[in-house]
Design a protein that fits this description.
Layout (H helix, E strand, L loop, with lengths): L5 H19 L15 E4 L2 E4 L4 E7 L2 E6 L5 H10 L5 E5 L2 E5 L5 H38 L5 H34 L1
Length: 183
């Protein structure tokens, strides 16, 4: 009976998607709509993402323009962005809300690179946990007589190949983000 690695592949993919989402929230000094994805606004008796309350666009390289569909929620949107502590300045004018990204200093770039590396390590730890889970399952199946010792080591090699590929992809994502941050 062949070992099914579908669960392993799925979990590795989920970790990669998590890392992409986490890295998109780290700004690089350039305006990015993705930075606001995690911001929730209290409006109409519930909390909801900004994109459900307003149009979000890039005004220039360092400015986002948020145009609420209902002007009465402008204050709530502005407050939510400020409370999210994203390292941006927020101001409103008659037409909507302007989110300005500060010029990146060497110190802030280094701080963001450290955050990227921390997120990468969190993803690696998750992959190691999945690796241990799958390896434990393979060993248990061998002990139960469902596979031979040769099969166990063949499956271990196959598992390691998937883990290595997953880690390489995580590394690539982090390196790309570091390059964006460092300019």
């Amino acid at each position: 009976m062949a070992y099914n690695f579908l669960n392993l592949k799925t979990k590795v993919k989920e970790i990669q998607e998590w890392l992409v989402k986490e890295l998109s929230a780290i700004h690089t000094g350039r305006a990015s709509v993705a930075l606001l994805d995690g911001v929730r606004v209290s409006a109409y008796g519930s909390t909801m993402p900004i994109h459900q309350l307003a149009n979000i666009g890039v005004e220039d390289a360092r400015t986002l323009r948020i145009t609420p569909w209902d002007v009465s929620v402008s204050g709530s949107i502005e407050k939510a962005i400020q409370e999210a502590n994203l390292g941006v300045s927020v101001g409103s004018d008659g037409k909507g809300i302007r989110v300005s990204f500060p010029e990146m200093t060497t110190e802030s770039r280094e701080r963001y690179v450290k955050i990227v590396r921390k997120k990468l390590e969190e993803a690696r730890i998750s992959i190691r946990g999945i690796r241990e889970e799958v390896w434990g399952d393979i060993q248990a199946r061998e002990k139960a007589g469902e596979m031979s010792e040769d099969d166990k080591f063949r499956y271990k090699d196959e598992m390691e190949k998937y883990i290595k590929e997953g880690n390489e992809q995580l590394e690539t994502l982090a390196k790309k983000k570091e390059t964006d941050i460092l300019g």
